[in-house]
Amino acid sequence: MGICHKCRKKIGLMDSFDYSPDGKYRFHSVCYKKIYGDYNVKGSTIKGKKFEQEQKDFESAISKIVFTTGFTIENKKIIEYKGIVSSEIVLGVNIFKDIVADVSDIFGGRIKGYERELKKGKSLLIAKLGKEVLEAGGNAVLGINLNVGTVGIKSNSILLMMTGTAIVIK
C-alpha cells in the first residue's frame, strides 16, 4: 500500500489512511489528524498554540463567508466580481471499504463508509474554497458546483472538486 509520510511506517492493506490535500502523500489516519486535524489550512507551517489560534481565526473568517449554489443573494448587493475559485481533493479508498462496497452493491444497501468520506471531503472542500475566496478578496461565493469523479485505473481514489465565483457583497 505504501509508506506513511509522517511516521515512515508501512501502510498495510487493512490500515486506515488519508492522502495529503494535494494528493501527493499518504498518511496513516492518526498521523494525518496530527498534522492536518479535520482539515488543512494549506501552506501553514505554524505549530502549537499559534497554529490553534490561526485555525480559530480561519474558522471565524470562513463562517462569515456566504456560500450559495444560486447566482444572487437575497437583500445583498454585489459590489465586485473577484473571479473563479476552486478547490480539489483526492480521497483514498482502502481495500476493506471496497470489499464492503461490493457486498453492499450486490444487496442494494447504502455504503456508509463512502458516505462518511464524501461528507468529510465536502467539509474540507468548503474550507479550502473559503480560503480561496478570502485570498481573492471576496466575502461570498456564487454558483457553487460540486463534482465527484474517480482517479486511477482501478478507481481507487475519489476526486472531489468544488468551483464558484468569488464576489464582494454589501
Q: Would you report the number of β strands? A: 6
State the shape. Answer: globular
Name the strands of the widest sheet in spatial order.
3-5-6-4
Largest sheet: 4 strands, mixed
- Overall mean pLDDT stands at 79
Structure class: alpha+beta
- For the record, the CATH class of the largest domain is Alpha Beta
Write the element-wise H/E pattern from the N-terminal end onward.
EEHHEEHHEE
Percentage of residues in strands:
25-35%
For the record, the count of structural domains works out to 2
Helix content estimate? 25-40%
Ends apart, CA distance between termini: 50 Å
Please report the number of helical segments: 4
Structure write-up:
It is a single chain. The chain is an alpha+beta fold and 170 residues long. It folds into 2 domains: 1-37, no CATH class; 49-169, 2-Layer Sandwich (Translation Initiation Factor IF3). 36% of the residues lie in helices and 28% in strands. It has 4 helices and 6 strands, in the order E-E-H-H-E-E-H-H-E-E. A 4-stranded mixed sheet has the order 3-5-6-4, with helices on one face. A two-stranded antiparallel sheet has the order 1-2. Helix 2 packs across helix 4 (112-136). The protein starts with 16 loop residues before the first strand and ends with a strand. Mean pLDDT is 79; it is low at 39-47.
